[in-house]
């Protein structure tokens, strides 16, 4: 019964991934179910991205101009926008961080990890403290304040704001801060890690808005895409 349940979940998530066709979402090719006696092994066959995770690229020695960083941010935003604009009930990634984005040749950023995506209704029942712990630097102040806070698009935009900060700064978020100290700084002090001095003004403002303490002040992913496209256009002039 457990294998059948896993098989059903696996098929549903495979269908979810197959639904998305975007140059900024990792392409899904198929699933493989291999049974040997009582043991069942499940594989997902997905697009290979040459440069690895976004986190890996940002922590590497590879030089990245502001134009490249803005384009990477725009790619990432377009992938998330495609996810948020599904025709079904609002779809969320729910596990958004810089390891969930992959980078292909030409520095094209693609959203991956959609096997962990859930609808808003199911994720509200499945947020656990341990998950928030793993995702602590990406958890919104509201999630840190209340473990039962309903995960929504504003929470996801906060997480994405941390990813944008990583692209701009090329640093690991809250690297040398314990979970307890992070919780206090973000919730009580409304602390935001500083951006580089040479960060373009429009980009700085956008990243700070995504990391706003008040969820109402955070832009939608559609607005983020538009603003990043405008910043890119300005840099190209």
Describe this structure in words.
- Keywords: ATP-binding, Kinase, Nucleotide-binding, Transferase.
- One of its GO terms (molecular function) is protein kinase activity.
- Residues 1-235 form the Protein kinase domain.
- By secondary structure, the chain is α+β, with helices and mostly antiparallel strands.
- It has one domain (51-236): Transferase(Phosphotransferase) domain 1 (Transferase(Phosphotransferase), domain 1).
- 47% of the residues lie in helices and 13% in strands.
- It contains ten helices and seven strands.
- The chain has helices at 2-19, 54-59, 66-84, 120-124, 129-134, 141-145, 153-169, 179-187, 201-210, 221-236, and strands spanning 28-36, 39-46, 52-53, 91-92, 101-104, 108-111, 118-119.
- The strands form three sheets. It has a three-stranded antiparallel sheet.
- Strand 5 (101-104) and strand 6 (108-111) form a beta hairpin.
- Helix 3 (66-84) runs antiparallel to helix 7.
- The protein starts with a helix and ends with a helix.
- Residues 116-134 have low confidence and may be disordered.
Give the count of helical stretches.
10
- Number of domain modules: 1
Tell me the CATH superfamily: Transferase(Phosphotransferase) domain 1
Average pLDDT score: 84
Keywords:
Kinase-like_dom_sf; alpha+beta; 7 strands; kinase; Prot_kinase_dom; Transferase(Phosphotransferase), domain 1; two-stranded antiparallel sheet
């Amino acid at each position: 019964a457990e294998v059948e349940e896993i098989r059903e979940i696996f098929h549903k998530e495979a269908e979810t991934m197959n639904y998305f066709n975007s140059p900024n979402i990792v392409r899904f090719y198929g699933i493989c179910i291999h049974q040997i006696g009582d043991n069942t092994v499940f594989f997902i066959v997905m697009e290979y991205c040459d440069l690895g995770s976004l986190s890996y690229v940002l922590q590497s020695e590879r030089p990245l101009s502001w134009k490249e960083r803005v384009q990477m941010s725009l790619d990432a935003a377009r992938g998330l926008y495609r996810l948020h604009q599904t025709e079904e009930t609002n779809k969320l990634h729910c596990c958004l961080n810089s390891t969930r984005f992959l980078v292909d040749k030409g520095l094209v950023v693609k959203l991956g990890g959609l096997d962990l995506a859930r609808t808003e209704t199911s994720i509200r029942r499945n947020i656990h403290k341990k998950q928030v712990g793993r995702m602590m630097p990406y958890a919104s102040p509201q999630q840190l304040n209340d473990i039962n806070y309903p995960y929504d698009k504003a929470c996801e935009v906060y997480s994405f704001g941390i990813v944008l900060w990583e692209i701009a700064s090329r640093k690991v978020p809250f690297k040398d801060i314990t979970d307890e100290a992070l919780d206090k700084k973000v919730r009580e002090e409304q602390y935001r890690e500083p951006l580089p001095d040479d960060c373009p003004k429009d980009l700085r403002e956008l990243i700070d808005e995504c990391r706003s303490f008040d969820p109402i002040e955070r832009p939608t992913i559609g607005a983020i895409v538009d603003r990043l496209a405008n910043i890119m256009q300005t840099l190209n002039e």
